[in-house]
Amino acid sequence: MTYRIALNFEDGATRMIACNPGETVLDAAYRNQVNLPMDCSDGVCGTCKCRCEEGDYDLGDDYIEDALTEQEAGERLVLTCQMRVSSDCVIDVPVPSTACKLAPERHEGTVTAVEQVSPSTIRLELKLDRATGVDFLPGQYVNLAIPGTGEARAYSFSSAPGADHASFLIRNVPGGRMSTWLTQTAKPGDRMSFVGPNGSFFLRTPARPIVMLAGGTGLAPLLSMLRVLASQKSEQKIRLVYGVTHDADLVGLEAIEAAGAQLPGFSYATVVADAASEHPRKGYVTAHLDADDLHGGDCDVYLCGPPPMVEAVRTHFRDTGVTPASFYYEKFAASEAVPA
User: Fold this and answer.
1) Backbone phi, then psi, for 221, in 5-degree steps?
2) Per the domain annotation, does 336 fall within a domain?
3) What number of other Cβ atoms are within 10 A of residue 87's Cβ?
4) Are residues 244 and 285 in the same domain?
5) Is residue 294 domain-resident?
6) Distance, CA of 234 to CA of 136 (rounded, Å)
7) Where are the beta strands (DSSP E) in the chain?
8) Residue 289: predicted pLDDT
9) What is the reported pLDDT for 331?
10) What range defines the domain where residue 296 resides?
């Protein structure tokens, strides 16, 4: 038996490693060719100090107070040279991945489906070369290379970790280089590559009711989360409110319902902003967030959408006096070029 450790670096890169029972995280990282910061490896210097965001662990009592104070330990700061885990964990490493001599992780695959499912959305699916798929935290993104160019664009997985395929919901940007390639050139059999995973927007261990708010293709990372929750057969209450601009922009409903069928506490609503729409719920997602959905703030909120939507939800919480126990969000806009 091994434990799955996600090392999240300061620059957004994530590397997944396996840690054996009784093995320190520092030793596991070195065994997996990840050079975490260290100096003494004896719990004396504090150089390997990180923060454990998720999971269970033990630090023993062989380190000194100068390396890790009691207050720091209470705030879940850890010394990776002393840390022995007893569950899967997510660890924030306060340095860039490059400082740990960590090269970006590259994956390749073959296009199996590329479809413009609405005027605003393209669905892309790749069969991955690696049979075990990509290990990532549901909600994270990768930098997907545009074939024939030196550029890439950032997109969140809509598929679950570890699948032998990767799927994405991609915003169709008129004149955009990726959008143009996908709508005019791409076909099954084409080769594509991406680098990742990256990002701090990911599903945490469910501890209270979950509220998911999606705007447009911001549905993608939430679909990945729903698929993982369904595989875990979560019994938490989960409420999804999914907003789009026009009726035709509503996509992925079959995937939502398939995941929801395995989640006894799941419900969702769709909202269309277009005033001319005949959809039963019009306007913005904030107008369709009931007080019961938020459980008086005793909930975890996951929000992904364009910047105006994110700011509108933040303002809504402030104006209504509701402060969620946890609030995770990711803004997206038309992708800027990043190195492939």
Assistant:
1) -65, -30
2) no
3) 12
4) yes
5) yes
6) 19
7) 3-9, 14-19, 49-54, 57-58, 77-79, 84-85, 89-93, 106-118, 121-128, 141-145, 151-156, 165-171, 191-198, 210-215, 238-244, 266-272, 300-305, 326-331, 338-339
8) 86
9) 81
10) 210-331
C-alpha 277/C-alpha 290 separation (Å) is: 22
Token readout for 172 is 């169709």
In whole angstroms, give the CA distance from residue 59 to residue 74: 12
Kindly state whether residue 234 falls inside one of the protein's structural domains: yes
Identify the domain boundary among 72, 100, 128.
100
**Is 153 domain-assigned?**
yes
In whole angstroms, give the CA distance from residue 190 to residue 110: 6
Structural domain count, the chain: 3
* pLDDT above 70: residue 190: yes
Reported as half-sphere exposure (CB side, CA atoms, 13 A), residue 329 has a value of 19
Do 93 and 136 lie in one domain? The reply is no
Tokens encoding 141:
């993104």
Contact 250, 272 (CB under 8 A): yes
Provide the percentage of residues in the chain whose pLDDT is more than 70.
98
Q: In this predicted model, which residue has the larger pLDDT, 336 or 82?
A: 82
Which of 100, 123, 145 represents a domain boundary (last residue)? 100
The two counts, helices (H) then strands (E), for the chain are 7, 19
